Amino acid sequence: MSVKDNLLQIKSDIPTNVTLVAVSKTKPKEALLEAYKAGQRVFGENKVQEMVEKWEALPKDIEWHMIGHLQRNKVKYMAEFVSLIHGVDSLKLLMEIDKQAQKHGRVISCLLQMHIAEEDTKFGLDEQELNELIASDEFQTMENIKVVGLMGMATFTSDEGQIRKEFAHLKSIFEKLKQRLSGISILSMGMSGDYQIAIEEGSTMVRIGSSIFGSRNYS
Hints:
It is a single chain. The chain is 42% helix and 18% strand. It has 219 residues and is of the alpha/beta class. It has one domain: Alanine racemase (TIM Barrel, Alpha-Beta Barrel). An eight-stranded parallel sheet has the order 7-6-5-4-3-2-1-8. It is globular. It starts with a helix and ends in a 6-residue tail after the last helix.
């Protein structure tokens, strides 16, 4: 199956109210262009340098999403163009995004990353940290970021019950956040292996890579 066929298959598989982020990390520009020609406009990268190179080379109506763990010293390289940052896991990172967005006269949309998995390797805030962040004076005064929702990753397991429980937990935090902040609309959860469960549990945005582009080459 080609990239185009894979993409159209997945698009037919997900509801129209769910945004598909094509995770193009490590993939050559030609593969992205094939997806672009098949109508895909939202791409996700997890390394800033790779995203910058692709942004410079590819059509300018692409929406670039930063989906990986983001270091503060890398924000400045993508502040000019990034559409959505998925993995904001600290107030300090949010403040850096605000500072760099201001330099470009932009407001950058962000998702706060929640730690919902039972694995220790995943980044993210717990519910108390989330509440402290949005109650902080610093958060109230930032004018160049907009928190538009939450992102989270389930445990990497074949236990569908556990995955479902973790996604349901994130959805409940999302619903509570909507009561506290205006403009909360995006719940980014679900990847190639678990996106169907995520959609059933209320995801509005799924991040799918290998099912579109094939398995990744990390060499």
